[in-house]
Amino acid sequence: MASLMQGRLPINQDLLMMQKGMLLRKVRSRSWKKQRYFRLQDDGMTVWHARQAGGTAKPTFSISDVERVREGHESELLRSLAEEFPLEQGFTIVFHGRRSNLDLVANSVEEAKIWMQGLQHLVDFVTGMDQQERLDQYHDWFQRGDRNQDGRMSFHEVQRLLHLMNVEMDQEYAFQLFQTADTSESGTLEGEEFVQFYKALTKRTEVHEVFENFSADGQKLTLLEFVDFLREEQKEGERASDLALELIDRYEPSDSGKLRHVLSMDGFLSYLCSKDGDIFNPTCLPIYQDMTQPLNHYYINSSHNTYLVGDQLCGQSSVEGYIRALKRGCRCVEVDIWDGPSGEPIVYHGHTLTSRIPFKDVVATVAQYAFQTSDYPVILSLENHCSWEQQQVIANHLTEILGEQLLSTTLDGLLPTQLPSPEELRRKILVKGKKLRTLEEDLEEEEEEEELESELEGGQEADSELEAQLESEPQELSPRSKDKKKEKRSKPILCPSLSALVVYLKSVSFHSFAHSKEHYRFYETSSFSESKARSLIKEAGNEFVQHNAWQLSRVYPSGLRTDSSNYNPQELWNAGCQMVAMNVQTAGLEMDIYDGLFRQNGGCGYVLKPDFLRDAQSSFHPERPISPFKAQTLLIQVISGQQLPKEDTSKERSIVDPLVRVEIFGVRPDTARQETSYVENNGFNPYWGQTLSFQVLVPELALLRFVVKDYNWKSRNDFIGQYTVPWTCMQQGYRHIHLLSKDGISLHPASIFVNISIREGLEGDES
């Protein structure tokens, strides 16, 4: 195997068979299932396919795109075709981000195992590559630039490679670098010569300048010099001394440097490109917040119409929607349930052409994936449109499939005075929905039932009349009558067994904030359309904040968003709304903001609200924020970019003209954006050196979005990459921002290099 595979990946029989190629059946739907010839390429990192062996092949996917390989029985599509294709012969390739899964069926169980084992072997290899291997890309670039594959690179091939690398360089300067690296004077670059050329090409002059500002001899940073840098530039404060030793030990490549407690230029650059040098504070990455406060004190990662993986009218309903939502950290998922055939409830977007899935499949999927990403509670938001009979089936499925995971009574059997905390509800699934009566009445009935059971155990005979009484007990809120016909006619709309599963999250209609305060309890929750929530924020923003300090609110997208587009969640968060439900299947600005907030705190799906949004007496108004907030001024020097990708990779000779836009989202007065000028024809190492300034009144609510765009005077600038970070998780000093794609996938090694400085107060404020 050539390139990356050679000498670094243990070759096994599965990979050799995959390189020879194999006929597999590609399955898109129950009616579209066609044979294609799949082959692992010589680089060991890409899979191509053709209609037949020897036919025109085209790339299907890269190994780095693959998240995992699933067995056939885990695919709902392959399960639906089990009578036609044995499940043991099927497998599913799951990709990172929102790309659709690839379902394949082999001609035998043995061939399926070859592909499953081989692909997983490659995925594990790529995942396990250490940081140095990921940064060390010159081998890959050499393979791409060596057009005739003779192991040598001419200057003509180098010029072509520069275009592939997205950089336009003065020809004379490029030839000078080429000649310097060509130590054998052969007119071509081989092996180590190309490595030296690549290192010269990727030299970070702007980082050298920072290094030399603190290094007395320009060769190394002594321990004291590095401590000065961490304290003065990186704002590390008192921990700078201890941190300097840790970082030298972690990033200095030479053993002698580690022994002498000095940091070389290579070590300094490794630090700046690492998690420690990232704009996102690494202390905010694990769970770092207090998780013992009531549920209503947290923002909760929430999904709207979770079953949909496309639009709201004709899109596909799939359990894959739940898998993806739960794996990305969603803690509140929505289930629209309707009467289905054969007495089995189904899930789909009612009165539309969206496809249907069995409710029991959704519950089984939630049971399997609920706690793979986070141990904190999952909320099932039920939209129940079913008949009495199928509601009983819903209750049975929830109870039997979820088992101990389902929370079906209060944690201690006692009446609470506030909602439990995420910590208390670890690995529990809660049902949110309508309820026949209050929690107090439920607990009172449970007490009576326990007394009756106790009497029975004490020796009393349980005759059929008493058994009937016990069985009918949950229906006692229905109009009572000894006349059985009348009792049947007055049966409540909601099935008592389903009602009983709603404990802490009873859905109630919203009338007004005064009405809620007077008539509702802390465990009752209201839902608001995005337009209703917005108008309430404008009309009674402070009341909304106070409401959300003691009760949960859920906000959902407008029904007019048939394309599954999203709204900006920020203004709802500003009012303290906890469950701001999004169409998570749709990438874009709104989901960038959403993912940015929930990237912190271990990605657990719960983020603690600022203290002024947790106070039921708060004076905060999201539309008119006033003191005592500590206003701050933010200065961002956008210095340089590194290896920015092309938006349109099909145009080999096109080179980007990048610019950086910084956007702030927060309370209305803080929302702003500024951008640099564009750098012409350089996506490889553009330099801006421009400073942007922002003034922020409520930093606790602000998020920053860094967007890199390709300047285009004819139309809107093309998106290259972005990264969004909460203000409270942002590190000061010289930092790298590692860019993400539209789908939130790493664009490694693409990054921008910035200097962040935060000053207390507003510019010109002398107070």
Automatic annotation (TrEMBL):
GO-annotated biological processes: intracellular signal transduction; lipid catabolic process
A molecular function GO annotation: calcium ion binding
Xref: SMART domains: C2, EFh, PH, PLCXc, PLCYc
Domain C2, first and last residues per copy: 614-741
CDD domains xref list: C2_PLC_like (cd00275), PH_PLC_delta (cd13363)
Quaternary structure and partners: Interacts with GRIP1. Interacts (via GBA motif) with guanine nucleotide-binding protein G(i) alpha subunit GNAI3 (inactive GDP-bound form); low-affinity interaction.
Protein name in the entry: Phosphoinositide phospholipase C
Organism lineage string: Eukaryota, Metazoa, Chordata, Craniata, Vertebrata
